[in-house]
Amino acid sequence: MDPFLALLHSFSSSLSESELSDLKFLCQHKIGKRKLESVRSGRELFGFLLEQRAIAADSVGFLETMLKAIKREDLMLRLEQFVEGAEDNAAEQPDVNEKRLQKVAIEVICENVGKDWKRLMRSLGFPEVKMDRVVAAYPFNLLEQLIQSLREWQKWKGKDAKVADLIKALRDCGLNLVADRVEQKLLQMSTETK
Q1: Residue ranges per domain, the chain?
Q2: Is 166 exposed, middle or buried (0-12, 13-18, 19+ CB in 10 A)?
Q3: Closest by alpha carbon to 56, among 81, 79, 28?
Q4: Which of 81, 115, 168, 170 has the smallest number of Cβ neighbours within 10 A?
């Protein structure tokens, strides 16, 4: 399955009728009036845009402009992640064991870190701009902001993302109890696998 088509399909299912109407208005110069009148879903609209070569997996500028115009920051973030993911596939990733440890550490962090998540991300050296994008995409969901920020941090650091960095950052910003819980969980996990 084409990942770009899957992304467009998911965008289509999350559009309201008024957002679809706004997108159709924005596409008047790309798609003929008759075709636009027949469009009843985002999927159909994106299909016409693909036919016209107005959007493509390697050419998302127009799609990004449209999403910005209808103020769908969440979809813009997903599009950006798609583009970065395509670029990052060539980058080295952490080994399987480190990924497993990170997953456990992140679960514990998400259960125990609340409104202090930005302080943690700053301690990890995560760029403020990326945090702002995550907040814009999930404005009323603190947990999702933390989860997405940690995922973005993992992508940003690539193979250099280490659980030790997470624990150090937790301690650096005074979240020692959470750091202890992460270490306990990792220790428990290592004894279970022996």
Answers
A1: 3-88, 96-193
A2: buried
A3: 79
A4: 115
Which residue, among 67, 96, 93, has the nearest Cα to 80 in the 3D structure? Answer: 67
pTM over 0.85: no
| Helix spans in the chain (H) | 3-13, 17-26, 33-38, 42-51, 61-69, 73-88, 96-112, 117-123, 128-137, 142-157, 163-172, 176-193
Q: What is the pLDDT of residues 91-101, one digit of tens each?
A: 455 567 777 88
Q: Which of 144, 164, 148, 145 is nearest to 156 (CA)?
A: 148
Q: What is 3-88's CATH topology?
A: Death Domain, Fas (1.10.533)
Domains 3-88 and 96-193 share a fold: yes
176 token code pair: 């020692």
Residue for token pair 């957002």 = 19
pLDDT in tens, 48-91: 999 888 898 888 889 999 999 999 988 888 888 888 776 555 44
Cα distance between residue 17 and residue 14, in whole Å:
10
